[in-house]
Structure formats: structure tokens, C-alpha cells
């Protein structure tokens, strides 16, 4: 796989009179600045305000899923099994961070909170991410198994969400689905590569699928808020047939089997979380909480 350049909501370019291009020969390195960049302009969906608390809650679900998965993948930078994967996983993490920013901005618009307020100043019980996204990275095989399930689900979700009557949610989904299609392809290719590689890589891939799959069922569970968002939210249970068809095709080629064990009774949408989330949030939030109000 060819690594892509960092793109989407996770990248900025230097602009204005302080940028590198504007420097003369006496200052070869220039003064790279983002002072002239309006970061809010990178967000998909515009500046609309969430119409109700239920819409904001739904946007929070989607934003938290993307934010936590982005943080997980970012931990692989400088630790991936090859340099190309450092770049690939970093790009995927940046895409997801862009999705999270857009959804969290929209969620916070209902009651005046910013995306940073929601990312850094909520405690664990205030998050609404599904347990799948909270699963530890483990070895590379476990990360790929989690990524296969997550990206396949997100592709089905964003494809359907483009038809939402909420213009902001539809616009975010239209941008995100193009990026998640790449994420899914990356996960599929690595699943096939690991399952069809050495005896050790196959053993680890089988173990990874067994570890991750109990947390897939929560993604398709219809919570009560969905009943109040007819035409706006995507009913999770409707996404499972498309998800199952993709996974069945991948697993057939990889000669893997869907684990037959019971699904977890995970309750991430209601603020009940897997033990790893607290540690992840502590690392993600430490700078903002130690230096409140700091800017740079």
C-alpha cells in the first residue's frame, strides 16, 4: 500500500506573510505559522446548530467513536512494524480526528460547548463511544482486527447517514465516507496478509479476531434515542446486513471464521465503559488539564 500524504481535517498549511514561501534568502528556514489559518474552516458540515438535545447526543456518539479510535491509532506512530505503516496509521488517525472534530463541534453547538470542551473536559462517564473503539491496541494483529470491524461499520454508517434529513450530519458523512473507504481497504488487505502469512501471523490474527469480536454486537444495538430521531439518525440494526456481508467475504478469502461466542453486554452509549478508556483519556487530556486555557 502506498502511504498517502496527511490530508483532511488533520493537516494545515502555512499561509500569510509569515509562511516559509514569503521569507527571503536571509532566513532560509522561515517562520512557519498557522496564525492565518481558520481551523474551523476545515470542519465538515458548516456552522449549523444542533436542533435538539437528541441530535446533539447522536453526534456525540459518532464523535466519541472517531476520537477514541484516532487516539488509539496514534499510539502506533514510531511503533508500527514498518515505516510505511507509521505513515498509513497516522493518516488514518488524522482522518478520524477530523471526523471527531466535526461531530463534536456539532454536538457542542446545542449548548455552547466547543469541540475542545467535549474532548478534554468530560470525565469517562460522559463519553458515549462503543466498546469496540475502546479495545486495547494489543499486537498489530489485534489492531487490524479492531480496524477491520470499525472501518467496515463506519463505512456502512456514513453511507447511510448521507441520506439524513439533518444537513450537517449528511455533509459530515459525505466527506467521511470517502476516507473510511480507504481505511476499510487498508484493514482488509492487512487481514488477508496476516491470515495468509506465516503460521505465527495466522495464529495471531485468529487470536485477534476472537478477542475483538465480542464487542461488535454493540454497534448494531438500537438505543431509545434512535426512536426519537427518525429520518435523522441511522438505525444501527439496519447496518448489520451490509457489515456481515463484507466480513463474510473477507473471512472467506482469509479462511477465518466469525467467533461463535456470546456478545458483550457493553454499554458505551450509556456511559458505561471498558476499563481501558480511563487510561486513554488520562493521557489524551493531561496537557489541557494541567495548563487550562493555554494557547499556542
From TrEMBL:
Pfam family, one: PaaA_PaaC
Compositionally skewed regions (Polar residues) per UniProt: 1-12
Segments for region (Disordered): 1-31
Any one Gene Ontology cellular component term annotated for this protein: cytosol
The organism's place on the tree of life at top rank: Bacteria
GO biological process: phenylacetate catabolic process
Name the record gives this protein: Ring-1,2-phenylacetyl-CoA epoxidase subunit PaaC
Amino acid at each position: 500500500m502506498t502511504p498517502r500524504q496527511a490530508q483532511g481535517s488533520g493537516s494545515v498549511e502555512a499561509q500569510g506573510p509569515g509562511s516559509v514561501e514569503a521569507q527571503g534568502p536571509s532566513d532560509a528556514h522561515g517562520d512557519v505559522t498557522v496564525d492565518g489559518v481558520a481551523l474551523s474552516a476545515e470542519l465538515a458540515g458548516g456552522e449549523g446548530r444542533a436542533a435538539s438535545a437528541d441530535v446533539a447526543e447522536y453526534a456525540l456518539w459518532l464523535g466519541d467513536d472517531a476520537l477514541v479510535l484516532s487516539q488509539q491509532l496514534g499510539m502506533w506512530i514510531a511503533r508500527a512494524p514498518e515505516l510505511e505503516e507509521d505513515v498509513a496509521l497516522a493518516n488514518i488517525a488524522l482522518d478520524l480526528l477530523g471526523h471527531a472534530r466535526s461531530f463534536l463541534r456539532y454536538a457542542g453547538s446545542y449548548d455552547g460547548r466547543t469541540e475542545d470542551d467535549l474532548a478534554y473536559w468530560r470525565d469517562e462517564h460522559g463519553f458515549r463511544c462503543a466498546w469496540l473503539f475502546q479495545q486495547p491496541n494489543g499486537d498489530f494483529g489485534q489492531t487490524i482486527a479492531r480496524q477491520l470491524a470499525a472501518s467496515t461499520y463506519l463505512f456502512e454508517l456514513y453511507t447511510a447517514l448521507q441520506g439524513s434529513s439533518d444537513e450537517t450530519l449528511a455533509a459530515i458523512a459525505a466527506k467521511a465516507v470517502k476516507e473510511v473507504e480507504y481505511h476499510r481497504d487498508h484493514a482488509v488487505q492487512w487481514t488477508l496478509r496476516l491470515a495468509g502469512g506465516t503460521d505465527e501471523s495466522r495464529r495471531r490474527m485468529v487470536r485477534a479476531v476472537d478477542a475483538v469480536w465480542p464487542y461488535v454486537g454493540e454497534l448494531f444495538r438500537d438505543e431509545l434515542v434512535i426512536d426519537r430521531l427518525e429520518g435523522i439518525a441511522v438505525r444501527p440494526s439496519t447496518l448489520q446486513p451490509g457489515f456481515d456481508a463484507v466480513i463474510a467475504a473477507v473471512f472467506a478469502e482469509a479462511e477465518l471464521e466469525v467467533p461463535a461466542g456470546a456478545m458483550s453486554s457493553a454499554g458505551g452509549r450509556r456511559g458505561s465503559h471498558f476499563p481501558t478508556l480511563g487510561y486513554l483519556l488520562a493521557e489524551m487530556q493531561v496537557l489541557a488539564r494541567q495548563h487550562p486555557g493555554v494557547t499556542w
